[in-house]
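Narrative summary of target 7.
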Amino acid sequence: MKLNKQKENTSQLSLTKIETNDMQYIYEWFSDIDFLRTYDYMPPISQTKEEVDKTFNDYEKNEESVVFAIKIKENNQIIGIAGFDDIVKENKVATLFIGIGDKNIRGRGYGKEALNLLLEYGFNELDFYRIQLNVLEFNHAAIALYEKAGFKREGTFREFVLRDGKRYDLFLYGLLKYELSNVY
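Modeled conformation, tokenized:
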């Protein structure tokens, strides 16, 4: 799947195709243990350039995924990545992910804007009926963001993740198209 068009809106951000020059930042983020601690439930292990290239090449070739660079419109600077994976076209379902990689701009509302753009694109352009996500129990900022957007906690994988010698739950969230909150 490819991004067909960028819908005009008042967001400071855009979701774009990942360009070759964006990869230098992505390599940095995927070697940053702090970023990886909350980005995924996989162990936060620094990845090599080759491992990151393989991951993103797999995304590009896979019809069950679509990945975007999150960029500030004003200067076209990449600040993170977002997208959908585990897409099941027949069921109109996908799993959402967002990672703000630039630690200097976290906490400024860019995650909220990126989420809004992604939900709009997923529900309106890709015609998903359901968008779901996984989030670690200690990622309080992400949980608050997702719940404010209307996501409902649908389940828990108890003590699913081991971080720093301690077990944590993995929460499962879902949002149906007709539940999309007007809060944003």
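Strands lie at 13-16, 66-72, 77-88, 93-100, 130-136, 152-163, 166-176.
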